[in-house]
Amino acid sequence: MKMPKVIRKYCPHCKTHTEQKVAQNKKKAPSSMTYGSKVRARKRGRARGRGNMGRYSKPAISKFKMTGKKLTKKTDLRYECKTCKKSWIVGHGIRAKKVEFI
Asked: 37 in a domain, yes or no?
């Protein structure tokens, strides 16, 4: 997928539309960011009077039909404002095998 190196976009820090420099980073694993769900699952696993509410009684995910490795990973695009020099990540990435900046 081809993308421009500089995009005119809204800057949440300047609160205006400015020119942004686009860079790509490696996408981090979602498990490294989420904390609450892991703790919740751990509490649920411990029988706290009501059991585990059926969470672990399902078959393994590998037995589900629509599973397996995806061919592409989501891109982690970072935008850097040219006026205030602050950068941020866009919450949703685009699925692409290769991102090329033109």
From this structure: no
List of E strands, 1-102: 2-3, 6-11, 16-25, 76-81, 87-89, 100-101
Q: 52 lies in a domain? A: no
User: For 60-79, what is each residue's pLDDT tens digit?
Assistant: 666 677 767 788 888 888 99
Q: How many domains does the chain have?
A: 1
Q: Which of 2, 18, 15 is nearest to 79 (CA)?
A: 18
Cβ neighbors of 82 (< 8 A, separation 6 or more) are: 6, 18, 19, 20, 21
- Could you tell me if residue 102 is inside a domain? yes
Token pair 């039909």 is at which residue? 65
Number of residues written out for the chain: 102
